[in-house]
Design a protein that fits this description.
Layout: H1 5-9, E1 25-30, E2 33-38, E3 47-49, H2 51-68
């Protein structure tokens, strides 16, 4: 977990349009990293992933979703 309270305020945090008004994770891209945080607790910290790690995580989520159908 990365603790960067000052850095998070200046980032463009986004969440999936599929989440509508629900709580979920938010993502911001900065430099060579993808930051991920909980939208319900943005001050609690964030994960910092390399782009390759981010894409592996997304692929894993999609694969698990397809298996559940």
């Amino acid at each position: 977990m990365v603790d960067r309270p000052n850095r998070g305020a200046a980032l463009d945090w986004r969440k999936s349009s599929a989440s509508e008004e629900q709580d979920c994770v938010e993502v911001a891209v900065t430099g060579g990293s993808v930051l991920v945080r909980d939208s319900r607790a943005p001050a609690a910290g964030m994960l910092e992933l390399a782009p390759a790690q981010w894409w592996r995580l997304l692929r894993h989520i999609v694969d698990d979703d397809e298996e559940a159908r």
